């Protein structure tokens, strides 16, 4: 072998722990040294293969170097984060968030209290506002034409339905949580009785809300149910005159009453059901004049029945047991004493014993005492029918359930758990009945 005089250096050993860059560099240096040791040898035939291998190794070195830089950068970032978010900084941040949360909670509480004060003020304004009679003469005086008659009676009931929330607020039944049964005699500026209002709030225990709704629909919208409504009362059967829609009807009602020489309370009433998501509303309205269904000739032994009522059944969840439900029944009925008949006034004018003024006062006084009794309106019949079929929840008192009929002039017992509140009539006397010396 020809000696060129150059020393042959062995390749540098590589350790397993050396970096990829070092290993690739050592391989390249070893190949170059091998080429220098054999300068007169034949040129290699695999030059292209060596170049491809070198390029591949260089690419691997570049990729590994990039990966190394990324890992180094991530390690630096983690170290910086650990230094930035120390436990002291975390505690300060959480303390600031807690302070901001408490401040926001205090602000929201003040806003809620302010809204409650506004709502309470609005309720006081509604309750103390002057009660303007909303009834128009077209509402309760119906024509003979069938189309106009149907449109008029449905419009009358719809307008009363739009006032249901106002009436609930005015009578304090929106947020009521106890059973209430009260009667209020309202007087005008001159002292005359303008209306007798009866307000009822009962909480009935039932299996489901739909049970109460189905029973109520059967009692009102079926012939057999209407017979059950008046059974055991002083009312005769509610005679169906006409049905406007599937959920509305027009009935004739007549009740036996004991008010001196006046023996009967007679009138014609329209009823319509309005279904909502969580409540069902029944609107009851008396019709004073009707050309399509003429009323009987007035006489001195019959009062004209005049009532407007709202009967509401609301869904309420039971807090005691999930197997039972609580249904709230809210009833508002306003009965207006009818004016004396013309024959009564004419008889008083020609009479020597009584003057016309005394005769009118006696008539009003008797009519007021009739409406003060129980079950003297169709709306009250609905309340007592449900109170008999479902057990009212008791809150403070435990009284026996009321009888469906009441022939005496004084209010009878109230439903179980209910509270009888008889409002003063403005004279400081008990408003159970009006004595002969009172002025109606």
Strand content: 15-25%
- Per CATH, which architecture of the largest domain? 2-Layer Sandwich
Oligomer: single chain
Q: Quick check: average pLDDT?
A: 74
The helix-strand sequence is HHHEHHEEHHEEEEEEEEHHHEE
Q: Helical content, roughly?
A: 40-55%
Q: How many β-strands, per DSSP?
A: 13
State the end-to-end CA separation: 149 Å
Number of H/I helices: 10
Looking at CATH, the homologous superfamily of the largest domain is START domain
Described by the principal axes of the CA atoms, the overall outline is elongated
Poorly predicted segments: 1-5, 133-139, 395-440
- Our count of domains comes out at 3
| Topology-level CATH name of the largest domain | Alpha-D-Glucose-1,6-Bisphosphate, Chain A, domain 4
Rg (C-alpha, Å): 46 Å
Structural class: alpha+beta
Characterize the biggest β-sheet: 11 strands, mixed
**CATH class assignment of the largest domain:** Alpha Beta
Describe what you observe in this structure.
The structure is a single chain. The strands form 2 sheets. Strands 2, 3, 4, 5, 6, 7, 9, 10, 11, 12 and 13 form an 11-stranded mixed beta sheet that branches. A two-stranded parallel ribbon has the order 1-8. Strand 2 (180-187) and strand 3 (193-206) form a beta hairpin. It folds into 3 domains: 20-36 and 47-79; 88-115; 140-422, START domain (Alpha-D-Glucose-1,6-Bisphosphate, Chain A, domain 4, 2-Layer Sandwich). Helix content is 41%, strand content 22%. It is of the alpha+beta class. It is built from 10 helices and 13 strands. The radius of gyration is 46 Å and the shape is elongated. It has helices at residues 20-37, 47-84, 87-128, 146-161, 164-170, 209-221, 223-230, 342-349, 356-372, 378-389; strands spanning 141-142, 180-187, 193-206, 239-245, 248-259, 262-275, 279-287, 289-290, 302-304, 307-316, 325-335, 391-392, 419-422. Helix 1 runs antiparallel to helix 2 and helix 6 crosses helix 7 (223-230). Residues 430-440 have a biased composition (Polar residues). Residues 1-23, 394-440 are annotated as: Disordered.
């Amino acid at each position: 072998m020809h000696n060129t005089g150059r020393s042959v250096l062995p390749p540098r050993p590589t350790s397993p722990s050396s970096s990829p860059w070092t290993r690739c560099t050592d391989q390249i240096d070893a190949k170059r040294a091998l080429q220098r040791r054999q300068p007169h040898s034949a040129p290699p035939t695999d030059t292209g293969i060596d170049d491809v291998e070198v390029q591949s190794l260089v690419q691997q070195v570049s990729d590994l170097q990039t990966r190394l830089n990324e890992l180094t950068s991530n390690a630096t970032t983690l170290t910086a984060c650990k230094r930035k978010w120390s436990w002291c900084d975390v505690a300060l941040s959480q303390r600031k968030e807690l302070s901001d949360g408490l401040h926001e909670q205090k602000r929201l509480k003040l806003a809620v209290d302010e809204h409650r004060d506004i709502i309470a003020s609005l309720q006081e304004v509604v309750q103390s506002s002057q009660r303007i009679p909303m009834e128009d003469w077209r509402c309760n005086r119906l024509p003979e034409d069938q189309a106009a008659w149907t449109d008029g009676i449905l419009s009358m009931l719809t307008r009363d339905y739009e006032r249901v929330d106002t009436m609930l607020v005015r009578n304090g039944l929106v947020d009521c949580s106890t059973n209430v049964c009260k009667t209020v005699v309202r007087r005008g500026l001159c002292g005359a009785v303008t209306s007798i209002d009866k307000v009822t709030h009962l909480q009935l225990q039932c299996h489901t809300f739909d049970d109460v709704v189905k029973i109520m629909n059967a009692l009102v919208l079926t012939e057999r149910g209407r017979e059950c409504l008046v059974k055991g009362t002083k009312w005769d059967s509610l005679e169906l005159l006409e049905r406007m829609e599937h959920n509305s009807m027009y009935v004739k009602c007549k009740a036996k009453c004991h008010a001196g020489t006046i023996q009967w309370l007679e009138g014609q009433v329209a009823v319509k059901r309005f279904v909502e998501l969580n409540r069902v509303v029944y609107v009851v309205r008396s019709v004073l004049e009707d050309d399509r269904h003429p009323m009987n000739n007035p006489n001195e032994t019959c009062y004209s029945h005049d009532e407007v009522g709202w009967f509401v059944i609301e869904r309420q969840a039971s807090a005691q047991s999930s197997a039972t439900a609580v249904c709230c029944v809210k009833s508002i009925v306003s009965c207006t004493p009818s004016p004396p008949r013309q024959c009564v006034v004419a008889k008083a004018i020609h009479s020597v014993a009584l003057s016309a003024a005394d005769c009118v006062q006696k008539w009003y006084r008797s009519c007021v005492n009739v409406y003060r009794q129980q079950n003297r309106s169709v709306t009250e019949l609905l309340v007592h029918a449900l109170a008999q079929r479902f057990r009212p929840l008791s809150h403070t008192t435990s009284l026996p359930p009321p009888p469906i009929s009441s022939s005496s002039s004084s209010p009878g017992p109230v439903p179980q758990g209910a509270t009888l509140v008889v409002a003063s009539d403005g004279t400081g006397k008990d408003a159970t009945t009006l004595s002969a010396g009172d002025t109606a």
